Amino acid sequence: MTLPFPNDPAMREALSERLRFYRELGIGEFYRRPVDEAAWTQAEPEPQLEEARVAAPPEPVRREIPAAAAPPVRNAAIFSSQIEESLIAPRKPFPAPPPQAAALPPEQHFAALKLIREEIGDCTRCDLSKGRNKIVFGDGHPEAKLFFVGEGPGADEDAQGLPFVGRGGQLLNNMINAMGLKREDVYIANVVKCRPPANRTPEPDEAHTCSPFLFRQIDVVRPQVIVALGQTAVTYLTGEKKPLSAWRGTVHPLRGTKLIVTYHPAFLLRDPNQKKHAWADLQIAMRELGLTAPARK
Ligand code: SF4
């Protein structure tokens, strides 16, 4: 049986969001596995009421309350053993991030980043290489005090080879300016350096293959504060899968720096009401950096 897919774009987007959420939780098979049609459509057999009334003696009045029976699970078919395993079995542990490299003198940061880029080369270490146009290494000041980490390149980034240059990038620039900084003052990189097909979330093996380069960039730049933009960024930076709400609002130690977590700009474009909460997160970063917001003109 194929479940109907809604035609309404808003409903499609909402459904896609929900599927992404399930996928984030690691239960992707929930929506990939075919549903057993019989389990959804089989009608309960109709009781032969009249026959039962004639044949059966009248029921004695019972005063004790019967134990509640578990309600029938009509969609039990989709809870396959695979899903149960993914819910019950412990998650596969994340590979340990590379050990933190020794700090370099500031004048060597630029050359060290160049060396990492050369090492990546025309990378084919993971399947994301198959669909990319340009590797999006990272961009910004090699001695930045503030380092933003996103998920992966989108279409604009893939075309230009630069992180956060589309609509989300414009919003990130506005966020940086609101903090009293310029884009050239900060460093920006992603968990994966090649665009995932159709902007999907990177698969764990892709993120684990690429993220060591990100850790090395962080170790070279040595920012005071890292701002993780969204769930994927914080998950692969920390190796812990928790809801974004569990990360936000607090400063977390990470590789000798301070990690602050906020929403991804793409999410803020979809839900502008969350901008005020993102601003609250950025104010934590500003406090840690000793920054004050510029006066409004
Ligand atoms: S995403 Fe990273 S590891 Fe995968 S091909 Fe691109 S640069 Fe290489």
Tally the helices: 13
**Strand neighbour order, sheet with most strands:** 1-3-2-4-6-5
Low-confidence stretches: 24-57, 70-90
CATH superfamily of the largest domain: Uracil-DNA glycosylase-like domain
Mean pLDDT: 81
Ions, cofactors and other bound molecules: iron/sulfur cluster
CATH class of the largest domain: Alpha Beta
Gyration radius, in Å: 26 Å
Number of strands: 6
Describe the main β-sheet briefly: 6 strands, mixed
Shape: globular
Secondary structural class: alpha/beta
User: Which percent range fits the helix content?
Assistant: 40-55%
Overall tally of domains: 2
Strand content: 5-15%
State the order of secondary-structure elements, H for helix, E for strand.
Answer: HHHHHHEEHHEHEHHEEHH
